[in-house]
C-alpha cells in the first residue's frame, strides 16, 4: 500500500451521521430523560457505524457539554446506558469516524489546534488503516472512547493527571481512562491495589466496581500514553505515533497551565518528568510550575516497593487546598 502522502489521520475515517441535540447542557434531572431517549434511539444505522456506536459518540458530546456538572452527567450516562445494550457493540469497532470528530471537548480542541494534522500523524494514520483493514483482531477501546480522557476532563477544569501506559487489552475492559474499567468488569490487580491505598490513605470504602469516571469529571485527567491496543496484545500500538500525541497533551498542560498535580506511578510514567524536548530544550513537565508526585507502579509486582504508603491521594488534596482549589472526592 502506498504511503498516504496527502492524507492526515482524520482523512482515514468515514464520517458518521449525527444525532442532533440541543446546544445547551441539561438544566434539570427531568430534562435528561428525553435527551437519553434521543441519544439511544434516534440514530440511523444506514452507514458503517451501529446505532449504539453513534449514540455513544453523541453521549460523549453531551457529557463534554455538561463539563463538571457531575450529578447531571452521571444521571445522563446512567439513563442512556439503560437504553443501550452494551453487548451489542461490535468488538471490531465497525466503521470509523474521523478522529478529530471524536475529540469533542472544546477547550482541548482549542488547546491542541491542528495536532492530528502534524506530519507524525501520517505514520499513525498508515498503521491504524492497516489494523482496521486487517479486521481479524479487535482494537480497544471502542472508537467513541479513544479520547474519553480528554472528553471527560476539560482542559480549563484540569486539576491533576494520572498517566498510564496503554489501554487494557481484554474484552470490554478498556474505556479510554487510565486504570479504569466499566461497571460490570472485574477490576484488574493494579486497580485493586489503588483502592487498597485509597482505603489506607483516606479511609475510602473499597468500591464494588472499577469505573473511575467520577474522578475524571472532577478534573483528574486519566491519560494513557498510548490510546489504542490490539486485543490480548499489550503495547501492540506502542511507538506508532500515539506517544507523540499524548506527549503533546502533557507538554501543553505544562506550558499553558500552572499548579497541576502529576501522579507518576512506575518507571514508564516517571520518564515523562525526565523527558527533554530536544528542539525546545526543556522538560516535558516543568517541575518549577507544577507538582510531581512519584511512586512505584500499583501492579502486583511493584506495589509493595513504594506504591503502598505513598499517600498520593491525600497529598493531592492538600496541594489543591493550599492553592485554594476544591479537593477531589476520591470515594467511588
Automatic annotation (TrEMBL):
Tell me which Gene Ontology terms the entry assigns under biological process. Answer: base-excision repair, AP site formation via deaminated base removal
Positions of the UniProt region annotated as Disordered: 16-43
Task: Tell me where in or outside the cell this protein is found.
Answer: Mitochondrion; Nucleus
Record's compositionally biased regions (Low complexity): 21-37
Q: Which SMART domains match?
A: UDG (SM00986), UreE_C (SM00987)
Keyword DNA repair carried by entry: yes
InterPro entries in alphabetical order: UDG_fam1, Ura-DNA_Glyclase_AS, Uracil-DNA_glycosylase-like, Uracil-DNA_glycosylase-like_sf
Q: What does this protein do?
A: Excises uracil residues from the DNA which can arise as a result of misincorporation of dUMP residues by DNA polymerase or due to deamination of cytosine.
Please give the name of this protein.
Uracil-DNA glycosylase
Amino acid at each position: 500500500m502506498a504511503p498516504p502522502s496527502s492524507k492526515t489521520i482524520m482523512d482515514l475515517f468515514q464520517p458518521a451521521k449525527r444525532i442532533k441535540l440541543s446546544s445547551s447542557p441539561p438544566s434539570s434531572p427531568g430534562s435528561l430523560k428525553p435527551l437519553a431517549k434521543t441519544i439511544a434511539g434516534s440514530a440511523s444505522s444506514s452507514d458503517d457505524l451501529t446505532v449504539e456506536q453513534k449514540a455513544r459518540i453523541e453521549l460523549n458530546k453531551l457529557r463534554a457539554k455538561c463539563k463538571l456538572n457531575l450529578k447531571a452527567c452521571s444521571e445522563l450516562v446512567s439513563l442512556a446506558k439503560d437504553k443501550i445494550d452494551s453487548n451489542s457493540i461490535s468488538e471490531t469497532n465497525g466503521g470509523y469516524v474521523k478522529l478529530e470528530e471524536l475529540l469533542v471537548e472544546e477547550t482541548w480542541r482549542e488547546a491542541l489546534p491542528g495536532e492530528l494534522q502534524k506530519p507524525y500523524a501520517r505514520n499513525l494514520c498508515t498503521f491504524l488503516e492497516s489494523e482496521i483493514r486487517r479486521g481479524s483482531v479487535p482494537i480497544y477501546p471502542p472508537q467513541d472512547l479513544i479520547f474519553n480522557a480528554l472528553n471527560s476532563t476539560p482542559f480549563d477544569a484540569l486539576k491533576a493527571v494520572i498517566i498510564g501506559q496503554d489501554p487494557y487489552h481484554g474484552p470490554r475492559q478498556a474505556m479510554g481512562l487510565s486504570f479504569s474499567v466499566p461497571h460490570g468488569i472485574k477490576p484488574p490487580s493494579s486497580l485493586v491495589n489503588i483502592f487498597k491505598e485509597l482505603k489506607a490513605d483516606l479511609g475510602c470504602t473499597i468500591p464494588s466496581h472499577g469505573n473511575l469516571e467520577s474522578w475524571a469529571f472532577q478534573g483528574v485527567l486519566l491519560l494513557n500514553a498510548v490510546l489504542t491496543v490490539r486485543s490480548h496484545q499489550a503495547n501492540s500500538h506502542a511507538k506508532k505515533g500515539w506517544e507523540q500525541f499524548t506527549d503533546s497533551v502533557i507538554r501543553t498542560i505544562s506550558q499553558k497551565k500552572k499548579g497541576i498535580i502529576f501522579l507518576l506511578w512506575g518507571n514508564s510514567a516517571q520518564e515523562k518528568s525526565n523527558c527533554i524536548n530536544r528542539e525546545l530544550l526543556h522538560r516535558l513537565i516543568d517541575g518549577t510550575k507544577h507538582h510531581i508526585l512519584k511512586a512505584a507502579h500499583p501492579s502486583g509486582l511493584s506495589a509493595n516497593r513504594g506504591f503502598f504508603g505513598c499517600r498520593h491521594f491525600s497529598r493531592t488534596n492538600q496541594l489543591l487546598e493550599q492553592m485554594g482549589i476544591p479537593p477531589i472526592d476520591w470515594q467511588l
